[in-house]
Amino acid sequence: WELICALRGHLNQGAIGCGIFLELLKGLSHQNANILPFSTSKPLMPISKPRYLEELESYLRAELQALDLTKGKVQELKLQPYREVFECFMEEFKTYKPLLASIKREYESTIAHLQEKICTLESVNGVLVTASDQCTQQILAFQQQEKIEIAKLKDERLYLLKLIDKMKEEKCSLETQVAKLRKTVAEEYLRYLNECDARKLLLLDLNEMYRQKEEMRLTMEQEDVLEEDTVKLKVALRVARQDLTKAQVDLNTMQANYGDVVPRRDFELQEQKYNDLANKLSTLQKDFNDLRDEYEIMLDIHKQVADDRDRYFNDLINVQRTSTPRPDWNKCGDVVLGGNERWSSLSVGKTSDQLVDVLLEEIGAGLLRERDTFTGRGRSEKIPPYLRCDGLVRNKKLTKKEVVALLREIWREKIISDQQKGKQSSLPDFFLGFFQKKYGEAAAFDWTYSVYENLKLFRSNEMMTSFHYAQLDLTLNQKKNGILSN
C-alpha cells in the first residue's frame, strides 16, 4: 500500500485523470483482501509486507537518495525511479500488464504533450518577459524624458514670467517717457509758434524799411539827374543817333543781300525731296511708256479681233441664210422608247451625224421587232452563203446585247478553228457553219438573217460594224485585229 500511495501521489503530480489507475489498484487490493482469511468477530492481525514489495521500496528509496537534486529538471529525475518500479510492478502482474501498459502509454503521451506545451509556453513566456522589460524600459525612458521636458517647460515658464514682468516695467517706463515727451513737444510747439509770429512781424518791419529806403534812393537819383550837365546829355544823344543810323544801314544791306537766301538745312531737305520726286517721276514715266506701248498693242489686237468678229458675223449670216436650220434633237426624246432620260443618255457627247445614226437605230430597232419573218434572197452566187435561201425566214428578234455576245463567240470559235487548221478560213462560210453546227440546218438561216439585219441597223456599235465590214471582205485583217484587242 505504501508503494501504491507513492505511485498515486507521483502520478497526481504528472497528469490529470489517474483515477482509473487508482481504482484498479483499489480493486486489486480488495481482491487480495478477500482472499485472505479473516473473522468478523476478531480484529485483523497486522499482515507483513511481501518480500517483493520490500525490495521495490528499498530500490525506490535507494534511487531517490542517489539522485542529484541540485541540477535542473528535478521532477523528471524523480519520475524515472517511479517509472522503473511501475514497470517491475507490471511485470509481476501478468494478467493486468496490457491494461497497465496502455495506462502507462497514455500517461507518457500526456506527459510528453504537456512538456511540449510547457516548452512552447516557456519560449512565449521568455518573449513576453523580454517585451515586458523593453516596454518597462521604454516607459521609464518616456517618464524620464517627460520629467526633463516638464522641468524645461517650468524653467521656460519662469523665464517668460520674468520677461513679461520686465516688459511691463519697460512699458510703464516708456509710457512715462512718452507723457514727458508729449509735454515737451507741446511746449516746443508753442515756442516755435511764437517765434514764427515774431518772425513774420520782423519781416513786415524789414519790408517796410526796405521800401522806405528805396523811396529815399529814387528821390536822391532824381535830384542827381536834374543836376547833370545838359551838354553831356546832348553829346550822348547824338552818338546814340549815329549808332542807330549805322545799325539801320547794316540791316538794310543784309536784307538786300540775303533776303532771298534760305537756311542750308531747309535747302538740303528740299533737295532730298526733289531727288525723290525726280526718281519717282522717272519710274512713272517708264511705266507710262510701257503702258502706252501695251495700249497701242491692245488697240491693234482689238482692231484685229473686231475685224475677225465682223467677218465671222458676216459668215454666220451667210451660213444661216444659205444653210438648213439645225434640228432640235430634244424632240426625239418623245419618240424614242424610254423617253427623254434614255435619249439624253444616248445623245450625250455625239455629233449630229452620230445622232442621226442613233435615231435611225432606234427607229429601225422598233420596226425590226415588229417583223416576224424575212424574205429569202435566193440562191444566186452573188448572194453571200449565209443568206442563200428561198422562202420566208423567221425573225429571232434579238437584242443588241445578244447580238454582240454571239459575235464575240463567233470570233473566238473562228480563231480556235484557224489555229487548229493552220490556215485562215472564210468568215461568211464560218458564219453560216457556226449557226448550222449550233442550231441545226433548219434554224441556221433564221439566226443568220436576224444577226445580219441587226448588223446593218446598229452602225454606232464598233463590234457590229467591224463584223459587218469583215463579212463584206472590207479591210478584214485590220478590223479583226481591232476587235480582238477590244
Automatic annotation (TrEMBL):
<dbReference type="InterPro" id="IPR032755">
    <property type="entry name" value="TSNAXIP1_N"/>
</dbReference>
<feature type="domain" description="Translin-associated factor X-interacting protein 1 N-terminal">
    <location>
        <begin position="57"/>
        <end position="168"/>
    </location>
</feature>
<protein>
    <recommendedName>
        <fullName>Translin-associated factor X-interacting protein 1 N-terminal domain-containing protein</fullName>
    </recommendedName>
</protein>
<keyword id="KW-0175">Coiled coil</keyword>
<dbReference type="GO" id="GO:0005737">
    <property type="term" value="C:cytoplasm"/>
</dbReference>
<dbReference type="Pfam" id="PF15739">
    <property type="entry name" value="TSNAXIP1_N"/>
</dbReference>
<feature type="coiled-coil region">
    <location>
        <begin position="203"/>
        <end position="294"/>
    </location>
</feature>
